[in-house]
Amino acid sequence: MPDIKHFDPDSALDAALRLFWRQGVSSTGIQDVVSATGVNRSSLYATFGNKQDLYLAALRRYLKERSQPLFDRLAEDGRGLPAIAAFFAELIDARCSGEYARWGCMVSNAHAGPENGDPEVRAILDQHHQRLRDAMYAALVRAGGHGQLARGVDPGAAADLLALLAYGVNLRSRAGADARVLHGTVTAALDSIGSHTAV
């Protein structure tokens, strides 16, 4: 008889994604996934492979559906430094309030967890970092064109700095940092690279 799935794999993957995001892959057993998805173990294995395969699928989905749209919007925004400020304001809001408050970022959480030793996980983390850094760089090049950067600021080095700041926001928010403090830190970082003569 053909194997007929009696569940929606997309919905199951979304449920697993939220579970891994909230509590991390190392703290999540397959029974936790069964409970969160409502799908029995054999069906999960038949559809996704083992727990690690499911985690990788969830991590790729997170990058594609949650991170990449933000990066694309930043890279395409022509305002320069105001676009970067808006990116961080949205990031802090998402990390400190709403449905996913204090969950951090699934990718940043993976950087801090033992799963980053897996080569396939590391490849996704590196891809995420490169896309974040590229989006920051694109916005900074526009900022330079608008005369918004202080003299001597290198857009490449500044992009590296701001990418690291984004990870810091993600990790500190998960640890309970106050949103006002995070906003203050971002403002200080942008002030340090901005031209005070730009209009």
From TrEMBL:
<dbReference type="InterPro" id="IPR036271">
    <property type="entry name" value="Tet_transcr_reg_TetR-rel_C_sf"/>
</dbReference>
<dbReference type="GO" id="GO:0003677">
    <property type="term" value="F:DNA binding"/>
</dbReference>
<dbReference type="Pfam" id="PF16925">
    <property type="entry name" value="TetR_C_13"/>
</dbReference>
<dbReference type="InterPro" id="IPR001647">
    <property type="entry name" value="HTH_TetR"/>
</dbReference>
<dbReference type="Pfam" id="PF00440">
    <property type="entry name" value="TetR_N"/>
</dbReference>
<feature type="domain" description="HTH tetR-type">
    <location>
        <begin position="6"/>
        <end position="66"/>
    </location>
</feature>
<dbReference type="InterPro" id="IPR009057">
    <property type="entry name" value="Homeodomain-like_sf"/>
</dbReference>
<keyword id="KW-0238">DNA-binding</keyword>
<keyword id="KW-0805">Transcription regulation</keyword>
<keyword id="KW-0804">Transcription</keyword>
<dbReference type="InterPro" id="IPR011075">
    <property type="entry name" value="TetR_C"/>
</dbReference>
<protein>
    <submittedName>
        <fullName>TetR/AcrR family transcriptional regulator</fullName>
    </submittedName>
</protein>
<feature type="DNA-binding region" description="H-T-H motif">
    <location>
        <begin position="29"/>
        <end position="48"/>
    </location>
</feature>
